[in-house]
Specification:
The structure is a single chain. The longest helix is centred in the N-terminal third of the chain and has 32 residues. The chain is of the alpha/beta class. The chain has a 10-stranded mixed sheet, sandwiched between helices. Strand 7, helix 10 and strand 8 form a beta-alpha-beta unit. It has a domain of 267 residues. The protein is 33% helix and 16% strand. The chain is built from 11 helices and 10 strands. Helix 3 packs parallel to helix 4 and helix 5 packs antiparallel against helix 6.
């Protein structure tokens, strides 16, 4: 009798254990826990993702990201934040980062005090499924693809987009969304909600479930919060920023409703040097209170010297070999009076080679409102010559069947 009683208790215990496991697997992980898991950070204690952190693939992934992001923080991100605190003295609540890919990491490093971030590029939004329901081996494959897609930006500060496209289309997770998750989590943010959003041709935003038309610009709205508490919003829109693309979309109209912003342009494949991107170039000049850029951004000749003041940092060595014929004599002249910088960005990612230009729009009284930069370095340069762009090498810009856009080096 005692043996039967003990057997019954053991059977009930095993059944309870399996029921508990099934209950955990039946739960859906929160977006914040999913972001932390993909970033190699431990999710909350009651998350259904916790058992997956015991897998060797996740533990190796977490160790790799701890090391990679730790080095990046020390080498670049912390130094960018220090530079931004010293030189961006009048931040706007909105920041624009065109040609960004999913690069929230640098958007937040330069403009940590923004409350609304608008990122945009060709890359699709993609999706992140319920990770607890991936097939056997799916977690290891997904984590490996995320690591590969981030390899260049962790090493050099920019994405090689054709590589990222391949890495994040070969598994269960895809597009820019998983990378945004990783960057938000590794930036110390708590992700509160994620929802699709679409823009009609007038720039009106529609939430999930509403269809503004076949030509709508698709995006995602992520609400998150940092350690300081207030909720912030990150938009990422998958859109063609060429003249033809923005002409038929409401993307720039949506951005215009947000008011003047601080803008960031980095590793933008020198597209803003081209006539085919003149609309977005004019938009940035008209709707930015300041622009932080490397030399792949807007050529000096397009700035009105009566309306802008320039603060150069670092060294200008001209474009890398992948972008021949785009040397800017006016940039070279301007950077003869540049102040030093202790971090690297863009294609010239080494600290001793990098160039950073802070362009500040003057208010009506003609003062720049920047107190930390010397008057000597802020003198406007002589009018520059507009650079001539030759036909780019075929291995850099490959047409995408989706909308005739380009693969970018960001």
């Amino acid at each position: 009798m005692n043996m039967l009683h003990s057997l019954r208790i053991s059977t009930l215990a095993v059944m309870a254990m399996f029921a508990a496991v099934a209950d955990v697997r039946a739960q859906t992980a929160s977006v914040d826990d999913t972001a932390k898991f993909l970033a190699g950070m431990m999710p909350s204690a009651n998350s259904p993702l916790v058992p997956l952190t015991q897998e060797a693939a996740w533990q190796r992934h977490a160790k790799f990201f701890d090391g990679a992001f730790g080095q990046l923080e020390q080498r670049q991100i912390s130094r960018i934040r220090t530079w931004a605190d010293a030189n961006l003295s009048a931040p706007k609540p909105v920041m624009f980062y065109m040609f960004s890919g999913p690069d929230f990491l640098y958007a937040n490093a330069f403009h940590s005090r923004a409350s609304t971030y608008v990122l945009s590029a060709l890359e699709p939004i993609g999706s992140v499924p319920d990770l607890t329901r991936l097939p056997r081996g799916g977690i290891a494959s997904a984590l490996y693809n995320v690591e590969r897609s981030l390899e260049s930006i962790l090493s050099f500060s920019f994405f090689i987009t054709k590589d990222m496209k391949t890495d994040l289309q070969s598994g269960q997770i895809s597009g820019t969304l998983p990378i945004l998750y990783v960057f938000l989590a590794r930036s110390g943010m708590t992700v509160k909600s994620v929802e699709p959003v679409a823009l009609d041709d007038k720039g009106t935003a529609y939430p999930a479930g509403e269809n503004p038309g076949a030509k709508a610009v698709r995006g995602v709205r992520i609400v998150f919060a940092g350690s300081d508490g207030p909720d912030k919003t990150l938009y990422y829109f998958s859109t063609d920023l060429s003249n033809a693309g923005v002409k038929t979309s409401g993307f720039l109209k949506f951005c215009e409703t947000l008011g003047p912003a601080n803008s960031l342009i980095k590793s933008a494949s020198y597209l803003l040097h081209e006539g085919n991107f003149s609309t977005v170039r004019s938009f940035l000049l008209n709707n930015s209170a300041s622009i932080v850029q490397d030399d792949s951004g807007i050529p000096i000749g397009y700035f009105n010297a009566k309306k802008w003041r320039f603060f150069p940092f670092g060294r200008y060595l001209g474009p890398i070999d992948k972008f021949p014929g785009l040397h800017q004599p006016s940039y070279a002249e301007l950077f003869r009076r540049a102040q030093p910088v202790d971090f690297g960005i863009g294609y010239r990612w080494r600290t001793h080679e990098t160039n950073v230009l802070l362009a500040v729009k003057l208010p009506d009284d003609g003062t720049a409102g920047i107190e930390t930069v010397s008057a000597e370095s802020s003198s406007p340069p002589p009018p520059p010559r507009r650079p001539q762009r030759p036909r780019p090498p075929a291995d850099i810009f490959a047409p995408q069947p989706r909308d005739g856009g380009f693969f970018f080096w960001r």
